[in-house]
């Protein structure tokens, strides 16, 4: 069996002890979840230009978590003190990847920052900070309710799930055409889909890779991506 190629944009890291230098990385748990699902995970270098041609060889895309998008990308005129790890090249590349995947029908799973990238790519906005430690979803496992009949509910095989989160920002206004398909108890948008999209697409605000090794509902998201990639 030939494994479908799943492109995963790398994340810049200022230091990595094993390599001694700055690096481009992806979370091992994320890579392993794609591999378990039957995909061939491939980290790709963030670079400006030529995104469509670079993605032409791939069967699917996974937009992973990471630092914050520059607030100017969604029209904000100020920057909250908690915004961190903004990188212009990373933002440009991720937004290009999201737009190309959606326009071309390339199967796409977006995770945490990835969800926010898709939302901004389609003209949506973000709440720059959810209100500090008492409201943010960092180092937190909490329940979410999934919309019956949605792609995310189908992939998870459930309409309720306990999810592992690490984020201090959330969707403010959804982008054009996006539908909210999961929420937390506090109203935070936890999943987005695009009815009428050319290809399979879902985005989740949580980190399914954190528990995918032991939770079939979370591993199911990666399996759905790889399945769509294998049959496109």
TrEMBL record:
Xref: SUPFAM superfamilies: Class I glutamine amidotransferase-like (SSF52317)
InterPro entries the UniProt entry points to: Class_I_gatase-like, Peptidase_C26, PuuD-like
Key words of the record: Hydrolase
Positions of transmembrane segments: none
Keyword hit for Protease: no
Keyword Hydrolase appears in the UniProt entry: yes
Superkingdom of origin: Bacteria
Molecular function terms from GO: hydrolase activity
Protein name as annotated: Gamma-glutamyl-gamma-aminobutyrate hydrolase family protein
Taxonomy of the source species: Bacteria, Bacillati, Actinomycetota, Actinomycetes, Kitasatosporales
